[in-house]
Structures are given as C-alpha cells and as structure tokens.
Amino acid sequence: MNNFDYYAPTEVVFGKQTKNEVGNYIDKYGGKNVLIVFGSDRVIKNGLIDEVKESLNQENIKYTLLGGVVPNPQLSKVYEGIELGHQHNIDFILAIGGGSAIDTAKAIAYGIAEPDKDVWTLYEHTRQAVSCLPVASILTIAAAGSETSMGSVITNEVTHEKRAYDDNLARPKFTIMNPELTLTLPKYQTNSGITDIMMHTMERYFTNGSHMELTDAIAEGLLKTVMKNAKILQADPTNYEARAEIMWAGSLSHNDLTRLGTDGGDFATHMLEHEVSGMYGVTHGAGLAAIWPSWARYVYQNNLSRFVKFAINVMKVDSTGTESEIALKGIEAMEDFYHSIEMPINLKELKVSPTDDEIEIMANRFVASTGGFKGSIKKIFGNDAKQIYLMAR
Amino acid sequence: MNNFDYYAPTEVVFGKQTKNEVGNYIDKYGGKNVLIVFGSDRVIKNGLIDEVKESLNQENIKYTLLGGVVPNPQLSKVYEGIELGHQHNIDFILAIGGGSAIDTAKAIAYGIAEPDKDVWTLYEHTRQAVSCLPVASILTIAAAGSETSMGSVITNEVTHEKRAYDDNLARPKFTIMNPELTLTLPKYQTNSGITDIMMHTMERYFTNGSHMELTDAIAEGLLKTVMKNAKILQADPTNYEARAEIMWAGSLSHNDLTRLGTDGGDFATHMLEHEVSGMYGVTHGAGLAAIWPSWARYVYQNNLSRFVKFAINVMKVDSTGTESEIALKGIEAMEDFYHSIEMPINLKELKVSPTDDEIEIMANRFVASTGGFKGSIKKIFGNDAKQIYLMAR
C-alpha cells in the first residue's frame, strides 16, 4: 500500500428537502455576501433560485447572481465573476448546478482571493494558489464530483485549452445534495454523468499499485452499484432511490476515497478526453465513454492482472480463457454497458470526426497540458495519444 | 435511503515514516502549546515520544506530557489533563496511542475549552458542548476509530459508569497513521482491535433501513477485507500490508461512512458491552465478541433478510435452507471467525462470571445510559438486556 494523505472536509447534507437549509449552512461557514453561480435557466424556471434567495434573506445574507455558465465552463465567465466579486465585496461563492457551475465557482474563488494575479496561471501550472474564498454548492447534476473534490477544470475559449487545477484550498465547505433535483434531468445528461462518475473510480482503479484491498473493494462495490442503478434509471428516470445511490457515488468517486493506497491513478483517459471536449465542445462523460475502450485496448497488456480482476469482479464476465481473453471480455462488457445507457464507444458514435491534422493538434495539446505524458498503467506520450485517437476515430 | 449529514474533516496522513511530520501538522492547524496525552510506556520505550518531541522542537512548539492513560480511560485522568491545560495555557491536544488516549484527549479538549463547566455533564448528556480545543493523534493501535470519529467514551471510575459523548466539535484535525507502529502489538490487543473495527461497521449494517446499496457494498467489502487480513496476521503479525488494510479499515469503520443512508445503526451490542467493561475492566473488543452472538440470536428474527444478506454476502455461507437457518449459519460463521482469532464468543470465554445481581445492575445501568432502550433491529429495553446477558453468561 502506498502512503497517502486524505482530506475530504466537505460537509455533505444529503436527502430530500435539504435545499431550504442553504442559508443556515452559509451562515455556519461565515458567508455574509454571496456570489451565486449557476448555468442553465432550469434552476430559475423550477424555482430553485427563488428558494435559495428566500433562505439567504432569512439569514440576512446578501447575494449577487451570476448565471450563464456553460458546459466545459469558460475562462471569460470566471473573469466576469472575479470582477463582480470585487465590485460587491463577495466573501463566499455558492454554485448551483453540476461540475461546470462548481468548477467556475472555485476558479472565481481563487481569483477574488488573489486579486493581483491572473487566475489562468493556476491552470497553466506556473504557480500555486496561496488562498481561496470559501465555496459551497447545491448539486443538481450527479456527475463531476466537484462538490467534494479538490479539482476544477476550466476551458480557455480563445486558445481551446481545457485545463485542470487541483488544490485542497478549494475543497467546498458544504454541499447540499438532494436527489429530487436530478429526477428531471434529460437522459443524455444523466447517462453522461453516470459515465463520468464511473470513470472517476476507474481512473483510480487502473494503476500499477498493489496491496490496496480495501480501496479495491470500495471501488468495485461502487462501480457495481452505479451500473445496477443506472439500468434502473433507463426505464424509470424518476426513481428516487436509484438517483440517490448514483448521486452519492458521484461524490465518493471523486473525493479521493477510491484512490487511497494506489500510486495516484491513471487519468490518461481524462486527459485525452479533455482535448476532445476542448476542441469539439462535446459532453465530458460521453467523451470519456468514446475514448476509454480504445485506451483500454491500447494499454491492457501492461497490467493484465488488473484488467482480469476488473473483468471478473466488476463486469462479472465468464472467467474461462486466457488472461488476455478475460481482460478483453471485460472491456467488451463495459462497451455493452455504455451502449445499454446510450453512450458512444468511439469518436464516430460521439459524432466527432477529427481529421489527421486535428488528431495531431489534440495529441500536441495533450502533451502540453500533461507536461509530456500521463498514465500509470502505461505512460501515454504524444505518439501514444495519437494512436489512441486513431483507434477511437 | 434516509437523509444524512456526513462530516469527516480529519486529514489522514497514512503510511511509513509519517510520524516525523507531526510538528508540521500541528503548526498547520495552529497549535503553539501542546498537551501530549498517552497511555502505555511502550511509546516511551520505543522512542516514539522522543521523536515527537524533536519534531515539535523543530517547529518551536511547546509541549507538556500527560502519560498513564489506561484502557477504559478514566475521568480522573481527564480532570488531571484539564488542570494541566489551564496551568500551561494549552491550545492543542495531541494523543499518542489508540482509542483510550484519543478519547481522553477529546474529553480534556472539551474541558479546557469550557472551564466553568464540569466535563462529565457532557457524558451524562445533561448539556451539549459549545466549544472544544483542536485535537489530533498519532495512532498506534488499530481499533477504536476515534482518530476520525466524533465520539469519545470515558469511564467514571467512582460510579463504574462508562459513558459516550458524540459531537462534531471533537473531530480530530489530523491523524498520523503509520502501520509500522502496530507491528509489535500483542496478539490479544490486535485481535480485540479487529473485533472492535468490524463491530463498528456491523452496528451500522444491522438496521431496519433500506435502499442503502452503496453503503452496504462498502460495509460488506470492509468486513471481508478485515477478516481476510486478520487471518494473515495470526500467522504473520509483522505483515505491513495486512496491518495497513486493518488500520485504514479502523478509521473508515467509525468515521460514519458505513452508516450513511441508514436509520443510524443499531449499537445495542456496544451499549451492552460498555456495562461489561465498565464493571469488569475487560478489553472492549473482546467484550463485544462475547456479547454479539447472544444479541444476534436474540434479535435476528426481527430482520431476517438483513441477517440472511450478512450471512451470504459477508460470511459466504452456503445459501441452502430456510431463511432462519441461513441467518443462524451466518451467526455461527462469525463465532467461528472470532474463535479463529482467539476471541471469546460468550462471557464465560471472556472469563467473566456475573451473578444474577450483577446482571441486574448491568441491565439497570444499560437503561440509565441509553435513556431507556437502544437498538434498531430490535429496541433493547432493560429486560431484553438482562435476557441477552443471561444468554451470554
């Protein structure tokens, strides 16, 4: 088992009718002047924003609204939020939404806390943050896991670069997770979220570490629970219990619990996908499903026993045949699962057709954003990235 | 799935050679003047205290020592620590040891923070804490899970009352968990710890809740991982990897992760045991093993499907027969496991022979400390407690 540091301080407030408590929790964590960051009009139309305002009014907490965050959230919106923050003396950022709103909130929180520095330099990894405003969320989409994670991902829409910055400073103070808010999510968003959730654990599961039995048991249990409940939601999207299992899995899958004792995880698929959604604006989860099978086939021989364990313990494949055959059956079973939730298993099914030149550009950006390579099972360099994009095309 | 609030902010620093970092972490969390609380001379003899002193000296952090904490830690030691705290302007409590040292540290931290109130009234549940000094630990025994939990248990040695107080205020700031420090633990202590760890999850698993599939998957994975590695330690007590799995399981088993979405757990066995160790001073884990089988046989008909699930998923019993037969096979399999790690399965094997009068006294104290009854699977009142003690005798 590798040494690890685990820090997951976010208070999770989970269940029905929890959203009215937001004012109490912001007060508890010291917020007086809140920037509310959100994306779609769904949260205005369904009355959620009004309920939040009322809860804040009851606690005499001031607020300023910043809507219009888009999927693959953009740097310009972050700058807009930082500007608003300075104008209104903001001391607390509340995101309402999913990963896009929360990641934007984190970036704004860094930016306000260090007014003399360009926040994008964090995402360029040319410096580290020294402070960050408190962030919290009301989660409306189970997917990114940003509600309890240290990470945020922002796209510079001018350069088409999608970059991540991880820092414990931005771990949210609390998150209000009411599965009822996810009951009406469109199917494609639900299923992209499910893919993202599973991939956060799969990225940590596929490593060359060893002796991490408890972490493996948790990861395998999480993946099986998500797949079981994902299937329920295909036929019964308003099933509260299935939504609740998946929503909670989304947090545990990305708060690092499923990484502990490993060598840190692989995450090559994530970095490969960032270049796809950075260039084509596709939904992150669907992009992951389109890349993972090609990545898996490209690397599985590098740690056959790990892929065999996955095939048998998670995908429950028939354990006859050679190790390679079992590993490949596991990858195929995951493709079948993706198809069962209407996710793509390659770029063509994602409806993205990169030219050779575009693949070259994505591979080069992959190299730039990873500092050369990414991966634990196999170090993926620029040429490997190109091969995987070609396999996925 | 029931609503839940989950708050586990303790920073976990896990692995080899982590103990020298203690000064850095106390500095990070603002400690300037530390009370070091410990129990056995083992931590003096093996040089651990000296290493801690050196690490604190390097950060110019002052410290005062308080040794002599005993198993089933006593209220008089808590008062001694509070007195020392006031004398030396203590602002941070560091426990070195297991549950006894950490629970004592938490109680001292409450006591120093509210100098005009008797700390024992918290444990009598006649008031709630409003503040608490920061607490942290260097863990040397995998068992109680107090290193990340909200709980502490103190024995009033005058009245023989063993009482618990739970409050998020006392969640430790950090815990340094180096499995190497547990390699030389005596077998009986190791195995009592293993029993305590498993019971913390079993208390949460045996409930009447439903739809908590992810929590169940984590609980079942944890119990199987602990049992597997417990067996390894019987033959190979210095096996680092097995010690590491069990040590990490000890924290996850009591930081509430395995409770989420349930109705809060059962905990009748814990409260029944507190009266046994309160009266006879036995090791808590061994006491739990001596009580659980009788509790299980007394209550299993109240939630047969839960005991069947446990028997099949955790204890891997043959699933033929009636539900009652399968449930009983699960209980027997747990007894076999206890025997395999040299734990008692009744009071006789624990070498405790309570008279009828003593059982009456324990049952009365159980009623007093629980406020009338305890339990989820079945509410255990005074007469039920008496019956279970008689079954276990």
Describe this structure in words.
Two copies of one chain form a homodimer. Chain A is α/β, with parallel strands linked by helices. Chain A has two domains: about 10-180, Rossmann fold (3-Layer(aba) Sandwich); about 185-390, Dehydroquinate synthase-like - alpha domain (Dehydroquinate synthase-like, alpha domain, Up-down Bundle). Helices cover about 50% and strands about 10% of the residues of chain A. Chain A contains 15 helices and eight strands. Chain A has helices at about 20-30, 40-45, 50-60, 75-85, 100-115, 120-125, 185-205, 215-235, 240-250, 270-280, 285-300, 305-315, 325-340, 355-370, 380-390, and strands spanning about 5-15, 35-40, 60-65, 90-95, 135-140, 150-155, 160-165, 175. Chain A has a six-stranded parallel sheet with strand order 1-8-5-4-2-3, sandwiched between helices. In chain A, strand 6 (about 150-155) and strand 7 (about 160-165) form a beta hairpin. In chain A, helix 7 (about 185-205) packs parallel to helix 9. The longest helix of chain A is centred in the middle third of the chain and has 23 residues, at about 215-235. In chain A, about 60% of the residues are buried. The model of chain A has no long low-confidence stretch (mean pLDDT about 95). At the A-B interface, strand 1, helix 8 and helix 9 of A face strand 1, helix 8 and helix 9 of B.
Major sheet size, sense and barrel closure of chain A: 6 strands, parallel
CATH homologous superfamily descriptor of the largest domain in chain A: Dehydroquinate synthase-like - alpha domain
H-E string of chain A: EHEHHEHEHHEEEEHHHHHHHHH
What is the terminal separation of chain A in angstroms?
A: 37 Å
At CATH level 3, the topology of the largest domain in chain A is: Dehydroquinate synthase-like, alpha domain
